[in-house]
Amino acid sequence: MRRLILGAAVLAACTAFPAAAKDAKTRKPEVAVETLILDPDNPGETRVGRLTWLNGIRLWSNHWLFGGFSGLEIGPDGSTLLTASDRGTWWTATLELKDGVPAGIGENALHDMPDAHGQTLEDGENDSEGMMLAPDGSAYVSFERHHRIVRYTLPDPSDWKTASKAKSEILQPPAELETAPANGGLEALALLDDTTLFALTESLRAGKGYNRGWLIRNGTWEPFEYKRTEPYDPTDAKRLPNGDMLVLERRFSVLGGLGARLCVIARATIKPGAKLDCRAVAELQPPHPIDNMEGLAVRQNEKGETIVYMISDDNFSRMQRTVLLVFRLEPATAAR
Description:
25 strands; 336 residues; mainly beta; globular; 0% helix; single chain; Tachylectin-2, Chain A; 5-stranded antiparallel beta sheet
């Protein structure tokens, strides 16, 4: 298995978090499932932009730590799920598949994200946002409020359920990241190539109409600018099989309500110092079954098709629920 080579210089000495009350642990919530359709007003509709609807499920739990999911990974065969939440937890689950796409939830568990001492993260330290898995099985997680990226080394990279016992190391951030709004830091985190992380802020401005982002390699954070599409803010990103970067954006207002936008950045344009433009793939809005969409995952199935997954953070409602949506990404010529 190839290993991610970010260089030892990237990993700063672990700084001590405030003492936590108890050791990190695992909980097993009960989860109820509701099947969704793309457009309740037009039950036969299956397309929006370049996306073809495959399935959607709404998940409910009475466990107080369930929900708030902001980062997402799906296993290579589509049968396992790993998320990171803004409550300082991972959620792992086995996905019950129908025609190759999620239709239910099997065994699942909530795992505390441990600090450097194996204890639960305290309030103010636990607002995780972006997440990506490296080829060596390490999980990189970005945090807001106390802005940082943490590398978690799982005891068994093939078993995501070992996440609660992961060892953590902090990537030393640049001073500019400290100026980000408390709730507008590193939202999107992706692997650009085997040696480089792609990190994008939600609302740290970099000139008129642009957000700040970084390419992180060998301990160096090289800035770039990401063109905003008002009124959307970026919330996650994942590399597509051809190397392009797929970005998930979210909007919310009292009058306009919720909306989600997917767009693509051409791989050849992603360079240090670049001004990146993200081309629209699809826009989702009610009556589409969206919530506060924050997590994004991509995998290629056995047919070579690109499957896109989105998961919601429920922090507008503060209910113990989430929405998982699954689409097939069609070629650019298939847009409509």
